[in-house]
Amino acid sequence: MDPSEMTDKELQDAFAQGKLKPGLNVVLEAKKKPVNSRDGLKQCLADFRKDLAWVERLDIITGLAPDVAGLTTDKSNIDPDDDFQREMSFYRQAQAAVLEALPRLKQSGIPTRRPADYFAEMAKTDQHMQKIRKKLQEKQASMERGEKAKQLRALRKYGKKVQTEVLQKRQKEKSTMMNSIKKYQKGLTDRLDFLEGDKMQPPKGKPDGAAAQRMKKGPNAKRRFKDQKFGFGGRKKGSKRNTKESFNDVSGFRASVAHSKGPVRPGKKSSKMRGSNKRPGKTVRQKQKNRAR
């Protein structure tokens, strides 16, 4: 009976009888005894062995090749822990096998050298090489796309730089034009060459001859008129206030003009006439309307 199918009562009884011990209960299998069947091994070896020609097997058992430097051909004197001796023994044993196999191959008529026009067969199939070629083409195309994108970014960046320089140049030309217009309005120059472009403008910082001569002589008539009309700048607050001299100066006083006693000019009305025809106020007009009703 499987222990996992036993009930609690049966498990308790088995534990009381000593059939169960504390801990994990695992069914132990008996150890396999090694069997050294020589007859079976020989039978397997006989099955593997086939009577083939040496050309099909190419197996050679040989010792070490004789060394020119005088090294011994005895394998028992080689120290396996010495790397140099161990590698040299492998090399000399392979050399001895070649020296023994080449004459036997020549006797069998088997060529041991490749012809001059020999091409080795590829270990990979054509389908695999097509996949590799496709992969390389995709990689090359990806690199070309990346290079083109890099060039486009550089061109776009250069285009932005050129556009910024053009805008700055236009702003500078506009500022120069406005300055030239202001100079012309102020009378500092009488030339309008700045309207034709940069070629006709005089060198920067050097005014033309007429402007320089005018600056030496003084402002023109337009500037003098504006100076006479608006003044020369500076403080204007309180400029119309009376002073002691202006208060005592009565040379410009006219009694007829001040008291309206003089003759009335054609097309003008005296103060009395103007007063008599004065329109009544809104309140008076409203009262007049009420009376009329």
UniProtKB/TrEMBL annotation:
Keyword check for Coiled coil: yes
Residue ranges with Basic residues bias: 214-226, 266-293
Region (Disordered): 192-293
Pfam families: Ebp2
Free-text function comment from the UniProt entry: Required for the processing of the 27S pre-rRNA.
Family statement drawn from the similarity comment of this UniProt entry: Belongs to the EBP2 family.
Protein name per UniProt: rRNA-processing protein EBP2
